[in-house]
Specification:
The protein has helices at residues 26-44, 48-69, 77-106, 108-125; strands at 23-24, 74-75. With 126 residues, it is mainly α.
């Protein structure tokens, strides 16, 4: 080991273990968690409704996290912004998917074509 790679020793050295630093906002962290899980849920399409709910919760937590990050001694502004962006994306994709499914279901011609394709596939398997 060289002298440069060894930790400083002596009376003047301080460790950061005892030092209290700024804490990351819990709301910001949860906003990021809800944003990521909401986006993943929406992208599966089967759990889109769950992703929509998680995205809405993530938006609320992201806003709270931004307000908490403005306090002295609290960090997490970037985490809150990331969670907010992912949550907004989850909500927008979820709403778009819901609108697309609703439009498809209300279109009788599209449902009839889908039913015909299912019947054709069933006949091929028999």
């Amino acid at each position: 080991m060289t002298a440069a790679s060894e930790p400083a020793r002596g009376a003047g050295s301080q460790t950061h273990r005892g030092a209290t630093g700024a804490k990351t906002s819990a709301a910001a962290t949860f906003a990021l968690v809800f944003g990521v899980s909401g986006l993943i849920s929406v992208l599966t399409a089967i759990l889109a409704w769950l992703g929509l709910v998680l995205g809405i919760i993530g938006i609320i937590l992201g806003i709270v996290g931004l307000k908490m990050a403005a306090r002295p001694g609290v960090t997490g502004r970037g985490v809150a912004i990331g969670g907010l962006v992912l949550s907004i994306l989850a909500v927008l994709i979820g709403l778009g998917l819901a609108a697309g499914i609703t439009t498809f279901i209300n279109n009788e011609g599209a449902v009839d074509r889908l039913q015909q394709q299912v019947d054709d596939l069933r006949d091929k398997l028999d």
